[in-house]
Amino acid sequence: MTAAYKAAFRGHPAGVAVITAEGPDGPTGLTASSVASVAVDPPVLVFSLSTNSGSAGVVLGAPVFVVHLMDARGVALAKRFASTGSPAADDPIWDRLPSGDRYLPDAASALRCRPLSTTPIGSSTVVVAEVLDIVVGSDRGEPLVYHNREFHSLTDRSRLS
Fold first, then answer.
1. Among 6, 113, 141, 154, which residue's CB has the most CB atoms within a 10 Å radius?
2. Which parts of the chain are beta strand (E)?
3. What residues have CB less than 8 Å from 67, skipping those under 6 apart?
């Protein structure tokens, strides 16, 4: 069942996000492909994290975090946050939102959120979060998707209708 489940979702493309939060050792983050919109009024999103340690543990323990929706121009950031270790607080990839929270200005959009609920399910935790602030980039690139364990961009050539 586990192998078939993984194979099924490997063939199901998903958008790419980087979720960041401030921890006791500075900012940290991780790449996620499970972010989805839940509601517009109020704006609510959902995602899951596969562990409660490391960056995931910091995000789960934070009173606010930032969900960065990535476009193809942000693939290097997505790869950087998909590996162990987060960029240092003084790394030039960071900037500050008016709230003071760190964010990645090179993301297509940044959504500052607060958790509404967390639900442990097996080795994962599902997070439902209210969106408090949104920064939409002025120059959005092609969409970035994760499919079959690789990053891809969607172009006009990939349109079917």
1. 113
2. 14-15, 17-23, 26-32, 36-40, 43-49, 65-69, 95-96, 102-103, 109-121, 124-136, 144-147, 150-153
3. 17, 18, 19, 35, 45, 47, 110, 111, 113, 129
